[in-house]
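Title: [Solved] Lipase family protein 3D structure

Original question kept below for reference.
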Amino acid sequence: MQRAERAQGRPGSEGADGPAERSGDTGSALELLVHGVGGATPERMLDDPHTVRVSGDDTAAVFRRAVDAEADSGSGFAAPAGRDGVRDGRPVPEAYVWCNLTSGNGARALWLLLLPFMVVNLAHWMRPTARGRARTVRLYGLLVRLLGLTLTVLLVAAACEVALDLTAWQCAGTRACAERHTWLGFLSPAQSDAGWWSAPGRRLALASLPPAALVGLLWYLSRRTWAAYESEQPLSRASDADEDTDQGSLGRPGFWYGRRLVARLRGAHTAAGLLTVAAAVAGAAARHDREPGGPAVLETLGVLLQAALVLCAAVVVWAVCRRGRSEQHLDRGLDAHLVRHLPLAALGLFVLTLVHAGWARTGWESGGRLPGDAAFSGVALVQGLLVIVLGVVAHLLHRTDPDPRAAMRGLAGPAVAMLACALGAVMSGGVSQRVADWLDGTRASIPGAPVLLTWQASVIPPLLLVLLALCGWHAWRTLVLARAERTVVEDAYPDERRDPERTRRIARTRAMATLTDRAPLFVAVVSAVSLLLGTAALVGALRTGQTPSGAAESTHPFLHGAAQTAQALGSWLIGLGFILFVTSGRRAYKNASARRTIGILWDVGTFWPRAAHPFAPPCYAERAVPDLTWRITSWTRTTGGRLVISGHSQGSVLAAAAAWQLTPAVRKRVALLTYGSPLERLYGRWFPAHFGPAALAALHREVVCWTNLYRLTDPIGGPVRLTGGPEPAVDREELRDPPAHGRTDRHPLPAPVLGHSDYQADPAFAEERARLLARLRPDVPAQRPDTA
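Solution (posted by the thread starter after getting help):
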């Protein structure tokens, strides 16, 4: 693949708002192709093996066919243009390839470990549409940010449980466990060669370094990915006051540049992680110092240190609650005192805690568990309360401006936030249970993981039974629908010979495509069951203080056996699920078919900016949308020509987001062609505040023309459902898929069921593209309506 470096305008043509407009040939036309989930090569998008890169880098770039490399010189084409400004009936094709923003080497599968952070960030953007409820909207964002903070504390607390409690405190402090793991010999006071590190406080101080290193790694990844993916500034505008006031939130100048909030949240979450590690060490030392006969000086210093930790934690919470995103203008500032000083203060307290814990103490021996039960129970209680309050706030917002198409009647955000908490609990509990089993097995020489984590493992089998029942119900519904669709399929091909097997295959594909529309019910049931089972686990852990099998032992032998089985099965299922989770994520980045299977969920999650959690995977749209906006603006102003943004699948969402960011003058030369688009089917239902009916209707009014193509066999794309008003309807009638039921003169071989792919192969695609170009600059002025 060759690379072509060329200027997009004449020397000295760059202005504050991009390239200066030139009185070029307005007959030139460009089709900017944006691919969807799973990625695509420029050769496949342009249907030509010879392509060149005209702009961009190895991460995201714009490509053209080699024969069109110089198409912007003169008339805008490599060959003379036709009367309507297109060559051979089509504009010059140009491909924007952004797949490297979300895929690449297998190491990026480690981002899946940050899935709870990504899911809670999704909950922020799922708030219902609200008019005139600014304070309630801010409260919604505040609650989600607090939930994100609890997930950070939970993850770091799980790391502390593994490193400090299970390894350094329990196993290294027990002769039987330490003898089985010789690498812990230098930490065990029972060994004959016990050294300086065998004191409990010093053991804890040393074991606290891995959790602290994990916090540092998260801080580094967040900072590095921001610089690599999200630091691109959007196209600046001469005056925000000149913009349309009716446009949606995605048209605001600062929507795709959240530097200030991400930096502040990164500092707060980094400090929260370090404070969690420091609190785990300081709590163990303070418990010993409070015993009778302990050194009064160390006890006083411990009290002061804990008070400083509480004060710093209060500052962290204040920093998270302080303010949300600034979208009305491009905010390039930073809260320097919070971004820099807060993590440094937490790091200083962490070091002081290690020094205090490492001080020599007589008679201090490790026994039982560290005080982690109260910490995990407290985090679970706070998360449950926040989810419930978030549900109340979401319901109030939905009542303000009801949207019948909104998923779960506006409760999608709280439900997804509950799933994020459940994922965090499963991951933290799974790691703790697996490490406890690895260190001790079935010997019961150490107390093991906290009681709450054992209860959470025990509720996994009932949750899986509910999931299996739900999947069975969906399968039955799909089978019934597939049978009903056979008549519809036969009626769609009235003039062709009937083929029952072919009819069943097409009907089954159409029925399977409707599973996407039933996803809200699935999420609602899973979230509700997770909340109920999590509440039961929390109550059981608080009331009994024992594992489920221990709590049931005194009631009935059958219950004791069932609880013991659920406890063991849940522990193994969590470990197995964690392994499958990582391996499937790695496979998804190396195997194209696997990536297409789960890619839509991942690309939807990483499409949104990091507004609730700074350690979530990076947002590729903060690079892709400015890229598209710059390209569209520079080309239209330089050539004065017409441009069709052609977006498939997730590419249609990027195309719509870029169209929102364009100025009104540029939009006059831009048309929107979407196909296989999840704009309304997924984004409109799950993110109603940003892609709901009002937002899509505003986009329809702002762009000159917009056409959407869809098939009923497509499991992702669907109609936009915008009809009525003075503008023509966005949706073209559904495309027939397959184009022929059996063998015909036009299709002598069986035509495949395309579903979500190959929309450009349908003749309707070229027809609608030509129609859009004609509407951008009609050859004959339209006749005025009769006013008589």
